[in-house]
# Entry
Amino acid sequence: MDDPKEGERDAMEAAPLPFRAAVDALRSARLRPQIEIDPTKAPQRLAPFAYALEATVVDGDEDLADGRLILLHDPAGHDAWQGSFRLVTLVRAELEPEMAADPLLPDVCWSWLTGALASRGLSYGEPSGTVTRASSHYFGGLAERPAASQIEIRASWTPREGLGGVPDTASHLASWCDLLAQIAGLPPAAPGDASIVTLPQRRGPQSR
# Structure
């Protein structure tokens, strides 16, 4: 049987240099220790080349938020993207009932995304997305469970390309982690915070 990891290595070696450089930058990014992050299987039909990460914000034994970030690359360019790279994300977290009831919550959550990018001085274009909140109420045998609310952000944007046609994916990943931390309710990380750690190399499937 073929080794799937070997197949992934072969695919990466065959990828264009700008895409490989963008992925290498993601792998070398420095992230907060509360955010557990690992490579995951990328969708195959969205672009000729794709790389994906999944993350969980952890506080002790509690998962506060989770998400997925996908880097897409089409060397020929894409009219809708207005570029050859695209970042696609899904972020979600449980909410306190008072926060879930706030009518401005969707606008605030979208501003967290754009604000996270702006705070690091990142240049990007063609942003789009949705903010969805959902509530669950339990009945019958589950009636003792308290009502639960969740917020979900789905978004995509085009990172501007720099030298060699490569976007600053490490900074975009750091901004995305800022968004994850904010939606999880963590305090902002101070610039140059020594608690920031380097993204680990690929590990086996998580046990959680």
Summary: The beta strands are 30-31, 35-40, 49-59, 62-78, 83-95, 124-136, 148-159, 197-198. The CA atoms of residues 52 and 70 lie 4 Å apart.
